[in-house]
């Protein structure tokens, strides 16, 4: 295949709560992720001393990052997407001053990346926030969270301004609609009004930190992060087409606000029709005008939508509720594999926003087998990634501005939806199972050598 643009950034993406472990080290406070030992869709559970949680150690990246970064460098990574655990910097969330030990840890991490010429891309909040903010303030339901988040963001922008030039605000910000505790720190079964009010606070906070980033680090770029939930109509019936338009708008709405600086008309109608009255102040409207520099998104699968209630009732879905596409195969976790969907999504986002795009998550979660010869023959992963990257190349040919590609979980890590280690994404195998057994040793899989070649040839080997 034709080589990608010279400036294209190749790499991988990880998140603090899925790799670091060290959940009570370095002065870190308890996060929402720590009280969700069964994954992002679950309710909070109070942890008793001695209770097992796979994320408490995760893959011990907190201590092993030099070894892991050396392996990423061996593959030729130009970029590593990481997240900062907010509770390492502000353990309770509402302190006036940051925790120096937490700041020093990320200094060491960024210095290690610099040693290998790997550009860090940092997500400010990836599926976690200080637990205390949920208990004391009711999470993002409270307007005060905007102040706490801005203080946190300003602290890390100021501290790392010479080390980090690529930032993202909230991971998969649209997931709050489906996982309100994870996304906006709302417990129980919040109603739509409560969820959208919390989302509004988060959108305002996101815009304010975009502004702060531009002030503090003028040569940085800051983007949003969407779960690219591409939906197709199940049939060409106009009712299905309309339903699909609405379903896609349910997540594109976040991009619309973050890229265009105001609420779109269709959303105002949705609020009116559903009796949702939000507290939106004049200064909120002013704040929202600070829009992102680029759009980042995750893409794993596509889904179908129908207006047929009977078909909908039978539909199954993993993270999002969607109807299966009869033309696509699925992963072991029921995620439908659709490489062409990535080209469609890139084109649609480009047509809609005309802002550069960054694919910051894509990959195949699968059960791997460590063979007697000490490797993993993960041809299924190679074929998934190869097919998707070919479509990225096609989108670039279509004229879409794509800044880079960081595949999800370049090293095995704890999966988000169910907190499993047996759902593996990595090029690097980690010896640890769902019960926490294993030496944590790292082993190169077959895909490690494949990705190294893709990067070395700048996509030419695809
Ligand atoms: C995205 C998240 O939803 O998908 C990641 O940003 C997550 O945190 C990834 O790990 C894959 O999902 P899962 O459940 O397979 O880990």
Task: Note down, in words, how this protein is organized.
The protein has 462 residues and is of the alpha/beta class. An eight-stranded parallel beta barrel has the order 1-2-3-4-5-7-9-10, surrounded by five helices. A two-stranded parallel sheet has the order 6-8. A two-stranded antiparallel ribbon has the order 11-12. Helix 14 links the parallel strand 9 and strand 10. The radius of gyration is 21 Å and the shape is globular. The site of 6-O-phosphono-beta-D-glucopyranose has 14 residues, from loops.
Q: What class, by secondary structure content?
A: alpha/beta
Low-confidence segments, ≥5 residues, pLDDT <50? Answer: none
The helix content, as a percent range, equals: 25-40%
Supply Rg: 21 Å
Q: pLDDT average, as an integer?
A: 96
> Biggest sheet: strands, sense, closure?
8 strands, parallel, barrel
Bound molecules: 6-O-phosphono-beta-D-glucopyranose
- Total strands: 12
């Amino acid at each position: 295949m034709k080589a990608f643009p010279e400036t294209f950034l190749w790499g991988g993406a990880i998140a603090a709560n899925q790799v670091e472990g060290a959940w009570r080290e370095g002065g870190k406070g308890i996060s929402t992720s720590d009280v969700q030992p069964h994954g992002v869709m679950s309710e909070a559970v109070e942890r008793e001393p001695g209770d097992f949680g796979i994320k408490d150690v995760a893959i011990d990246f907190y201590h092993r990052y030099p070894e892991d970064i050396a392996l990423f460098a061996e593959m030729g990574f130009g970029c590593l997407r990481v997240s900062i655990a907010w509770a390492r910097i502000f353990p309770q969330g509402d302190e006036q001053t940051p925790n120096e030990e937490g700041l020093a840890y990320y200094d060491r991490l960024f210095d290690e990346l610099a040693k290998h010429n790997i550009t860090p891309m940092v997500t400010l909040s990836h599926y976690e926030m200080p637990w205390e903010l949920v208990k004391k303030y009711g999470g993002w339901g409270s307007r005060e969270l905007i102040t706490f988040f801005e203080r946190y963001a300003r602290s890390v922008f100021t501290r790392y301004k010479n080390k980090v030039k690529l930032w993202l605000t909230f991971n998969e910000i649209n997931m709050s609609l489906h996982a309100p505790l994870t996304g906006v720190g709302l417990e129980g079964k919040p109603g739509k009004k409560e969820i959208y009010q919390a989302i509004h606070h988060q959108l305002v906070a996101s815009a304010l930190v975009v502004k702060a980033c531009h002030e503090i680090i003028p040569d940085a770029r800051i983007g949003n992060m969407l779960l690219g939930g591409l939906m197709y109509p199940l049939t060409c019936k106009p009712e299905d087409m309309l339903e699909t338009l609405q379903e896609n708008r349910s997540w594109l709405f976040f991009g619309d606000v973050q890229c265009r600086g105001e609420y779109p008309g269709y959303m105002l109608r949705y609020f009116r029709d559903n009796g949702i009255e939000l507290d939106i102040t004049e200064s909120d409207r002013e704040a929202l005008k600070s829009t992102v520099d680029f759009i980042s998104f995750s893409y794993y699968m596509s889904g179908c939508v129908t207006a047929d209630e009977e078909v909908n009732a039978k539909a199954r879905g993993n993270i999002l509720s969607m109807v299966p596409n009869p033309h696509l195969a699925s992963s072991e976790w029921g995620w439908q594999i659709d490489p062409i969907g990535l080209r469609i999504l890139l084109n649609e986002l480009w047509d809609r926003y005309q802002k550069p795009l960054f694919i910051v998550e894509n990959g195949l979660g699968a059960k791997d087998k460590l063979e007697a010869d000490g490797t993993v023959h993960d041809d299924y992963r190679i074929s998934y990634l190869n097919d998707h990257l070919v479509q990225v190349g096609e989108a670039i040919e279509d004229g879409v501005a794509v800044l880079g590609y960081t595949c999800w979980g370049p090293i095995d890590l704890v999966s988000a939806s169910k907190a499993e280690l047996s759902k593996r994404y990595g090029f690097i195998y980690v010896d640890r199972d769902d019960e926490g057994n294993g030496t944590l040793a790292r082993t190169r899989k077959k895909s490690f050598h494949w990705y190294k070649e893709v990067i070395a040839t700048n996509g030419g080997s695809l």
